[in-house]
Amino acid sequence: MLEGLMNPLIAKFQMGAMLSADDHQSLYAVCEIKQTVNRSMDVVREGDSPAHVYIVLDGWAARYKVLPDGSRQITAFLLPGDFCNGEITVFKKMDHSVVALTPLTVALASPDTLIAMIRDQPELAQAFRRAALVDEAVLRAWVVNLGRRDAYARVAHQACELHARMSHLSLLKKDEFDLPLTQEQLGDALGLTAVHVNRILKRLRDEGLMQLQNRTLTLLDAKRLGEVAGFNPDYLHTGTA
Amino acid sequence: MLEGLMNPLIAKFQMGAMLSADDHQSLYAVCEIKQTVNRSMDVVREGDSPAHVYIVLDGWAARYKVLPDGSRQITAFLLPGDFCNGEITVFKKMDHSVVALTPLTVALASPDTLIAMIRDQPELAQAFRRAALVDEAVLRAWVVNLGRRDAYARVAHQACELHARMSHLSLLKKDEFDLPLTQEQLGDALGLTAVHVNRILKRLRDEGLMQLQNRTLTLLDAKRLGEVAGFNPDYLHTGTA
DNA sequence: CGTACGGTTGAATTGGTTCAATCGGGGTGG
DNA sequence: CCACCCCGATTGAACCAATTCAACCGTACG
Q: What is the pLDDT of residues A40-88, one digit of tens each?
């Protein structure tokens, strides 16, 4: 059953890379243990020095930081194939936390093994590098979203981004996908209050652009939604360029 | 004269890494040409496929994106030692632009040479990886700054971050450093208008926390400034951890 | 000497927050 | 089986932080 769950990982890392059979073998082999994490439990916490690298196989997780006043900012949504804490192969301590937003299945990998893989398998190293650069590009897009878009365009942009990512993972059915986030969590990612997220969702629904119901997000008019969001998917490097 | 300017590059990449004489040699050798860029000229532009990797040797640059409505968001300040466009070793096209904020000196490196270096010199690859992970951590800090701090704490936090980075590059004199940014540019980085940045700077000055005059930023009370900013420098990984 | 750019300040406006009340569904214990 | 409760969604009203628009200043520069 682990094999089935590993598909997102393989899919992610062969993206745009010519991985050999050896590389594939390594990706399987590096995931020594499978583990489940309950919803709303932390996978790793800021200040921790985790002994393993956790890789999402199934479910949603989020990176976040809490401020002295207790407010919280989510800095990334983690989907199947994403590393929760790849940086501990370089740094000892986590500078942020990762929480399970749904019941989560993760693979555990040894940092030392990963380091050796990166050192000895150039194609794989390049694939990891590619993934890290996409993560960075997504962060830049979030900075732009938070810094320069109003709440309306901001929510729309997040919807477009998640739609594109889910599509890339083949987790879409038509223009719908499972979005297991409360309005509060959405607000924590978008720098808005849950109340305001609610009002914006209502507006987007009333205008026939998108709809979030029963944890399902439907893009009713993907074209117009992308326009109001100013969405340009190039930064996800989902194509060939 | 190139040798003198290369110091920031060497300094940056031996940070926390055990680089051999060979690695040092490579860092020098990879920078084939030195070039200058006038203030407010773009080093690379969104959509470009630059033939070289540009590395800042002297001066300030910024990554930025422009939105359809013409507004601009800066996503990073680049200081000596920083790569302007390292990602083109993996992706063909830039997903954002880089502009010179001061007269700028850059080194040009060949992407192919860099790729070979990363492949063949594990210690150097690790050093690059470290630098990329710090960049990512800084981006997360910016997301938190934009998403969850009011203008006052936000300006203070940016000041603390730049102070720490300049300190790490040994570009401080006492608690002062050269900050060659207009209030407009600061606003573009902080998701604020130039007018509001001005008001906040006045408040911080009146309260004796910091002072920006003649392109010089002075931390008048670094301790209190860090407190109002909620600044925790761990994410810069400037220490040993 | 004039012009352009960056900084400074005031007044009106507005997008988003805060506070508060209500509603609905799913799970639990009696 | 039903009553209760809790969590998340929804809506209204008052409030506030930041923007917008506008005027004015100083100074570097052609």
A: 999 999 999 999 999 999 999 999 999 999 999 999 999 999 999 999 9
A133/B92 touch (CB, cutoff 8 Å), yes or no: no
Chain B, window 127-186: residues with a beta carbon less than 8 angstroms from a chain A beta carbon: 129-130, 132-133, 135-137, 139-140, 142-144, 146-149
| Mean pLDDT, chain B, whole residue set | 94
Rounded to 5 degrees, what are φ and ψ at A216? Answer: -120, 125
**Which of the residues A97, A115, A130, A140 would you substitute to probe the B interface, choosing the one with the greatest number of B C-beta atoms within 10 Å?**
A140
Residues paired with residue B36 on neighbouring β-strands, in sequence order:
B105
Tokens representing B120 are: 């063949």
For A134-158, the pLDDT digits (tens) are 999 999 999 999 999 999 999 999 9
d(CA B40, CA B25): 32
C16 C1': nearest CA residue: A196
pLDDT score recorded for residue A94: 98
State the nearest residue by CA to the C1' of D18: B196
The token pair at B180 is 């060659």
Rounded CA–C1' distance between A198 and D9, in angstroms: 8
| pLDDT reported for residue B22 | 87
CB A6 within 8 A of CB A28: yes
B84/B111 Cα distance (integer angstroms): 12
Interface of A with B in 42-81 (CB under 8 A): 63, 65, 67-69, 71-73, 75-76
User: How far apart are the C-alpha atoms of B84 and B62, rounded to whole Å?
Assistant: 9
Task: For residue A176, count other CB atoms closer than 10 A to its CB.
Answer: 14
In this structure, what are the phi and psi dihedrals at residue B175, rounded to the nearest 5 degrees?
-105, 35
